[in-house]
Amino acid sequence: MPVGTQGTVKALSPAELEAEDCRILLGNTYHLNDRPGMEIMEHVGGLHKFMGWDRAILTDSGGFQVFSLARLRKITTDGVEFRSHNDGAKHFLGPREAMNIQRIIGSDIAMVFDECSPYPCSRDSACQAMERTLTWAALCAQQPRAEGQLRFGIVQGSVFPDLREQCAQELVRIGFDGYAIGGVSVGEPDDLILPGVEMGIGALPADRPRYLMGVGGFRQMIESIARGVDMFDCVMPTRVARNGTAVLSDGRRFSVRAGACKKDLGPIEEGCACYACRHFSRAYVRHLLNVDEILGARLMTLHNIHAYLELMRRVRKAIEEGTFEGLREMVKDSED
Amino acid sequence: MPVGTQGTVKALSPAELEAEDCRILLGNTYHLNDRPGMEIMEHVGGLHKFMGWDRAILTDSGGFQVFSLARLRKITTDGVEFRSHNDGAKHFLGPREAMNIQRIIGSDIAMVFDECSPYPCSRDSACQAMERTLTWAALCAQQPRAEGQLRFGIVQGSVFPDLREQCAQELVRIGFDGYAIGGVSVGEPDDLILPGVEMGIGALPADRPRYLMGVGGFRQMIESIARGVDMFDCVMPTRVARNGTAVLSDGRRFSVRAGACKKDLGPIEEGCACYACRHFSRAYVRHLLNVDEILGARLMTLHNIHAYLELMRRVRKAIEEGTFEGLREMVKDSED
């Protein structure tokens, strides 16, 4: 899922995302609640209508942002009181509020309001956050939802296998349409990411979507898929694009700003079918980035989103055709 | 002509300009010479290939920017020595250099290197600038050009009718493929703009394109067309777009940032056929502008470029059908 934090995947239009056969994107409850705010969101009839996107949308619950972005937090059993990172306005977000906002947004998949433990984190506070996550998940499951809206629970428990397993089992007992693995890729060393995925995933039913939140390295994704993950979101491909970093089809990255691209008449990636690669040279894209032209951010973002969606198409095909191991081999040396 | 200063019409892709039936755009010699520079431009085979645009391009000569943007100017009979506004590097631009750069850029229409008098300006210095413009025009006419490249002379003379008339006559004597009226809309009161157009235009042949440089108000354009002008460029529609100002089909402007647009479900302009108006509400565009999303700049720019190109299509049709006076009436109260 490309990330559309504020009601747009940065630099792209909905038409471009459709042309790339993007079928679902992610919106951020925290940011949308801040601006445009739910009064406007309700008036315009939800995020699909607002942003002109009739394909699927998943919204996070705002929990992650409340714990990472917002200031002056006060955590109670009902939720979190905080000040907006934007204008300092006081807000309160808890399971009831998060589900209500997502109901107004009208996303196709709503995430439960959870407490995401940072890394590192003591076993005690990881346990407390996991238990609060479960209490809130149960509350979220009772809130009204938008018509047809699915609801996903989120496994927390930091780096502690038994906590994650317990969390997964309890979530399944409550019963959700899908399950996410949260609290992974929150600053821990790379070699703790896959173990984080493994903990607890065995307790999640294989016939429900399993979604690994915030992980977007090619190797990490492929290895997570090998362990049973079905869905991902990551802000990385769009964020690094605007800084001039291209993600290639094997997961390697390189900077189009590099001096070596000055006179390079080739596309961002040879053989790539995206609009940027079909029409423009590295030399041109480098120039656009150097002089801060919007088209530079657009072309880089288009390319990176294409690379990600294309990887997922190849994975699906490889799984169907029984050639997944070969694909896994190909990206095993990609940077992340 | 939409303005593509640095090798891109800000925020738009070539495909979008083609979809709007844009047939010619303007590139800036001064900026392109600065970045990417002519070594890269020559290597990539000119601006058309560089930016993926196979329709027409007109380039200015850099004279206007040298006299308005650059620092530490030293003017000689051969041209102007100056420091780049960007990195302070020393450059020299004169008739030979300007025509050579435009030859490398490979524009379809090259402009002569002129001296544009500021406003206000004494008769003496206006006369001197006009005479220098003529000397340089004669020199420009002798320089090699790109294959098929047309060359336009530029009428200067500030607000002095006899100077402008003399300049126009001398330019016609040298002989150019088209003629431009320069030094208008350089800070003078609005009611001096049309008189500036009238001075000298009578001496320009009606069977050659006559191009009014840098003027882009709807009323100013229509009134200039009534006086014989065929071509315009103006950075205004794209520049104000990025600040949230929409230009409507009758030339009026309004700010989509206004609070009144908060919950406005209507398009930027009712009945407009541009991509932005067909798919998005004022409420959405306002939100995008408020949170500094690139898509906001894109949609606003698309709309404004559409409004301008559509006006020109309506003018051409009205002239053919003999209904130009009605159109003239419609925009007579538009803001510019």
SSE topology:
2 copies of one chain form a homodimer.
Chain A: H1 14-19, E1 24-27, H2 29-34, H3 38-44, H4 47-51, E2 56-59, H5 63-68, E3 71-76, E4 79-83, E5 90-93, H6 95-105, E6 109-111, H7 123-140, E7 150-155, H8 161-174, E8 178-181, H9 193-201, E9 210-212, H10 218-226, E10 231-232, H11 236-242, E11 245-247, E12 253-255, H12 275-279, H13 282-290, H14 294-321, H15 324-330
Parallel strand pairs in A: 1-2, 2-6, 6-7, 7-8, 8-9, 9-10
Antiparallel strand pairs in A: 3-4, 4-5, 11-12
Helix pairs in contact in A: 6-7, 7-8, 8-9, 11-14, 13-14, 14-15
How does this structure look, described?
2 copies of one chain form a homodimer. In chain A, about 50% of the residues are buried. In chain A, helix 8 packs across helix 9, helix 13 packs across helix 14 and helix 14 runs antiparallel to helix 15. The two termini of chain A are about 20 Å apart. The first copy, chain A, contains 15 helices and 12 strands. In chain A, the strands form 3 sheets. A 7-stranded parallel beta sheet of chain A has the order 1-2-6-7-8-9-10. Chain A has a 3-stranded antiparallel beta sheet with strand order 3-4-5. A two-stranded antiparallel ribbon of chain A has the order 11-12. The longest helix of chain A has 28 residues. With about 325 residues, chain A is of the alpha/beta class.
